[in-house]
Amino acid sequence: MDLFSFAYPLYERLLAWQITRTPSSTPRHVAIILKETDLFDPKGLEKLLSALSIFRKFRVELVSIYVDILKTESALKTEIASTLKARLEEGFSDLPEGTGYRIHGVDGEVNSTAPGRDFFVYVSLGFGGRNEITRALLSILGEVKAGTVRPEEVDEKMLESHLLVKHEPDIMIRSGGQKLSDFLVWQSVYSELYFTDVNWKDVRRLDLLRVMRDFQKRQRRYGR
What is the pTM of this model? Predict the structure, then answer.
């Protein structure tokens, strides 16, 4: 056995121990940005299901996932989203009891949902944050036009109440690159960011533990 093979499991156990020592500082809402190719790869989908189980074990309560569909042609984008939804539904059925999920398609409509008790997964298949805000504003304008809302009542809280995801991520993870994407634009303004060059299908349990431990050691400023 070489030195790396010996040290790797020890380091992993050390990180797990450090995380569990301060459970109150563990992120409660984790956001993950993926590419469509990450989930078409069987290893990528397997990694996602494994990551969800790991996060749940360490008391993460909500995981929001954005799948960036790179194709721009509407019909093809919808077809890709439909295929990914079927793959995710099949995979989610193997998650522990009590796991809930909601999957939104490229039009922002709910395509699939299941109730949960203590752990929830939100998935957006190609429906980004700018579209989410535009949709929320159009909904509010419709209410103003109908007379159910007065213009002076429109504020940040009202806008937030019309968003698909109501909770702000504690940390956003982007694997395989250094750029964010169009996801949770409003909600993530004060989120911590974590970039890793590791491609998603190569992400290990150790890498996810590093994310949580790194978050615990940060001093969040919330824009201050």
Answer: 0.90
